[in-house]
Amino acid sequence: MLDFAIFAVTFVVILVGAVLYLYPSSRRASGVPGLNPTDEKDGNLQDIVARGSLHEFLVSLHQEFGPVASFWFGSRPVVSLGSLQQLQQHANPNRSTDSFETMLKSLLGYHSGGGGASTENIIRKKVYQGAIDATLKNNFPLVLKLVDELVGKWTSSPEDQHTPLCAHQLVLAMKSITQLALGESFSQDARVVSFRRNYDAIWSEVGKGFMDGSLEKSTSRKGRYEPALSEMEATLLSVVKDRKSQRKTSVLVDTLLQSTLTDRQIMEDCMVFTLAGCAITANLCIWALHFLSSSEDVQDRLHQELEEVLGSGPVSLEKIPQLRYCQQVLNETVRTAKLTPVAAGLQEVEGKVDQHLIPKETLVIYALGVILQDSHTWDAPCRFHPDRFEEESVRKSFRLLGFSGSQTCPELRRVAYTVATVLLSAVVRQLRLHRLEDTLVEVRSELVSTPREETWITFSRRN
Prior knowledge:
Elements: H1 12-22, H2 45-51, H3 54-65, E1 68-73, E2 76-81, H4 84-89, H5 100-108, H6 119-155, E3 163-164, H7 165-182, H8 189-205, H9 208-212, H10 214-217, H11 219-246, H12 252-257, H13 263-293, H14 296-310, H15 324-336, E4 343-346, E5 351-353, E6 356-358, E7 363-366, H16 368-371, H17 392-400, H18 410-430, E8 431-435, E9 443-444, E10 450-451, E11 456-461
GO molecular function: heme binding; iron ion binding; monooxygenase activity; oxidoreductase activity, acting on paired donors, with incorporation or reduction of molecular oxygen
Cofactor: heme
Keywords: Heme, Iron, Membrane, Metal-binding, Transmembrane, Transmembrane helix
């Protein structure tokens, strides 16, 4: 069984930075076929930059060298796995040090959680996941309300009006995530606007700036990033203090306050939840609506299921598991959009893939975007076809990649899928989605796959 963690929001650059921080001593080459470093100091970083993204670089790397290939990240050798068969062979028993939260916190400067598989860290992870579950259960009516407000706006607009998906879904995600995490004070527009300003500054640099060292070389960019991070931290710590005195028990921060975590640790967990939650939720909703707008048959089948399961009532947490075709639509959205195109992990013990040995402390890249478009794994891989998930073999492949089951990160499995299901249940029962003619949506496959430009659709009312 594939034994590594795949993250809801895949920050391979964060993983690289954290591995270099946590394990600076490893310098052994892997012997796997691949590229020689083009620069003694930067390795193949300039090759990655020239390709436009790490995903595009990995596509070309595996086309040239096959399913197991290597390159250099600075002076460190990296092994990339680009097929499902090779991923199944990969064994990495100690996966606790590779968790998304540990890596993201490391680059943000949060080392209180540390790495490793200590009992303290395992308990902390369980507390975090349990807090997310409790938050969704306690605040599901909030998600319904925010979705109803958005869909109501769409239904009251002229049918030929062009609707900007990216802008609307990011706002929906930010309103949902901030209120789920931090409470009702973030229902105020001014607080959401302030949050978005800092979020944009942090998100644009996490990953990108660390990948090529450009953040350290740019005084102006550091001048935006560092104050934004400090202000966000101060805001979250203020919320922790306020909620502690109020003794409420409804949102994420409240549940975390009931644990033995320090205020600083709670702030860190809230930072991870808001950053990852906003990005993955917004983009899952964007891509799901975009693909539905291009497939009338899928819309009709989804509408039929929603009518049969929900009737005229709203969706509920209890009924979401019954919406099996809706789950297939979201799974196929993640696959077709290559929502998280790259993941990574540290090789804790010496391993072997095919005839290639992978030394201990080697950084191993999981080229998910390459695999998600592999014709040997998926029939017609570029086609949006939710029916494929009726087959157990397809569902098994999806699980092996870490996109379903217990390995899925909580921000994707618990939060993004819930918000997206509520959104689709409201939109599809009231409206038909239409793609604008002559509109080509290009994918920017970086940390999370997003459209390169604003994505527009139109709606018409169902009879």
